[in-house]
Here is the input.
Amino acid sequence: MDKNKNMNLNKNLDEKKELIEKLKNLINLDIKMNEKYLQFKEIQRKWFNIGPVSRRESSIIWNTFQHHIKNFYDYLHLNRKFKEIDSKHNHQQKEIILKKAKELIKENDIIRTYKFYQRLNKRWKYEIGPTDKENDKILNNQFLEIGKKIYNNKREFDNNKDLILEENLLKKEEYIKEIDNITNRESKTPKEWQKKIKDFEKIKNILEKSGPVPSNKSKLFWEKYKKSIKNYYSSKNSYYKSLKKIYRENILKQKNLIEKVQSLKSNKNLENNKKEIIYLQKEWKKIKPVPYKVNQKNFKEFKFICNYFFNKIDDLKANEIKESKKNKSVQNNFLSEIESDLSSKEINLEKLIIQWGKLGQKDLQTEKKFEKTIIKVLISKGFNKNESKIKFLEFKCNSMNNDEKKLKVSELIKELDNLKKELSTLENNLSFFNEKSKENILLNKVHKDIKKNKEQINNISFQIEILKS
Here is the structure.
């Protein structure tokens, strides 16, 4: 083993000597200045990557290397342009190291901070060349001030090492408890787990930077820590494994809903489609969770098909409204023509009713207007009001098919039932009046309402008889 170690030390020594020779010859090479500078930086990089040499040779080889480094800088600085470039580069590198050194002060791990500062110090002294004198002095003073604080902290740590290590151990054990609490915290949704991951990473990072623990308790502590970390990652992996399964199931549910809404395109009953689509939209909202990007893609497809139907329904309604307005205008013109020709004896009522039936869908108000107009025609021909109503109904029946008659009878029966219920209520109300109330205005109104109701019942009953005959 000692033989192999000596071989490595000798090999490292030979490599360093070879780099020194390259550095010596670099000044005399017949190449451009910027190429020389790049080769110089490469020699420096290689030097610090080579392992150690024997103690006896270490100081000699280092001083020789530094001597030729200084010679090259002296040579380099003869060229003002490259002196400025190199100085600027060195200034930037020292600013970076200074920033890292300032961040070290905030660290709780004194030993780690001390070792890291030593590495920075080595780079500062030996790897980075000079800057301009004024800035170099300012930067060096700042770096040294930070170094003093770090060395003082290290000295204080060494003086109170046992106490500080015990305090670190207590802190770290508290952090382990926090990690266990985070692991055991119930989290059912991806959002809750994201919070859990964030909390875990924060505590884990603080724990790892909170300084060393007593060496005789270190093994036991790290076993606890590894167990705690393992439990957390096991819980996390288990959740995300089950979540992947839920994702797959929910994505399949979304695909099925897309297929269902797509299949409705072949169904021409838009009103039924509308109800079905509203139901499917409610079902879509229940499907959670789904990966964000997949959900966005599927929802875009689902929404596009739904919008297709709703736009179609809107277009149909707009056309119906347009057609209804057009029909109403034609119907009103038709009624106006009849009213303007009431005195004519040549009016054929059956023909008018047939023509009216061909003028499209009518609302209740327009139908009543037509009925009043025809009754006016009948009254103008010598019929009284009741006879005119009966005659109108007879004409209307002649223009209706069996299905239309059945539908009309059904409507009239419903109206008749309501009138009979209303009549029963009115007759019951009479019992609330005594003999002295005979002149009561309210009582008179009840009697009038009863009379009117009976007339309506008789009229509707008669209409039902005509329609059934």
